[in-house]
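Researcher: Here's the sequence for the chain we discussed earlier.
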Amino acid sequence: MKAARLHSLAPAEQKPLIIEDLPEFVARAGQVLIEVRACGVCRSNLHMIEGDFVGFGVPAKLPIIPGHEIVGSIAGLGDGTGGLKKGDRVGVQPLWSACGVCEFCLSGKEEICPSKQITGETVDGGYADYMVADATHVYSLPESLQYVEAAPLFCPGVTAYGAVKKAGLGPGKRVAIFGIGGVGHMAVQLARLYGAEPVAVTRGHDHAKLAEELGAATVVDPSEKDSDEVLRKIGPVDSSIVFAPSSSIAQLAIRATKPGGTIVIGVSATLGEFPFVLEKRIVGSLIGSRQDMKEVLNLAKTGKLKAVCESYQLEQANEVLLKLKKGEVRGRAVLVP
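Model: Thanks. This is the structure I predict for it:
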């Protein structure tokens, strides 16, 4: 099997992924072997590869195969894999497995299980011809979805869904979505499904145009020098959702949100001084549970949620990471082995 493996952490400009031929993986008890048909390229892949997550113990091993939003077909099964069978179309999200018995798993918050395994960060992921997955954490892929368009549902889709659920949206509410990339463009669509008015805050003509195409009521460029003018254009919002990896943007989101409103943060950021007297609420958000994932797939199956994609060959993985770093990816880049 062919794979793009990371042996040492380095900037994307140094092309740190090495395309290698490896022995094909074998599914053990409780696991399935998946022939990868498409794998999305996430900004968190870039952060891991460049060493930004070392303080969090990520990657947990080297070498490692990145990639955590994967679709394909089952090519092999270990013992004890339930009703799964060869040829089934399935997907895998960042949550590779969880213990199933801790307080977080039992309360539907599997994504913060302290014993969880993360696809492409603690175990090998989907930048490859094949990957191994935990049979209890694979998801049936609706026949109506093509592989490339389905792959981003397994990270941007479920991540945006989890964040929007936390934002307290509803008809007549205004929500500012900061960063219209792989996750943000999904959040715009989901906000509209809640009946809310999405305000897109993003840099670059392509990202702004994408937000407009997906139904953003207002698009604001936060790079203007006068932050007060940026706030005026955003207008007071009931909630803010931050996917732009920037402390200054997170601080802007706090200022833009009405007293009593909610700011959902899906990136690492320094939040600075917090106006507690205005009773604003800050909530962290990380992917979603297995039930969230199933609900995202149901929305996509009925055409209510779609990923805007660019497809590339697996051998172009380094090139794609650099494009992502430069902000040159519209929607989501997807690798196709």
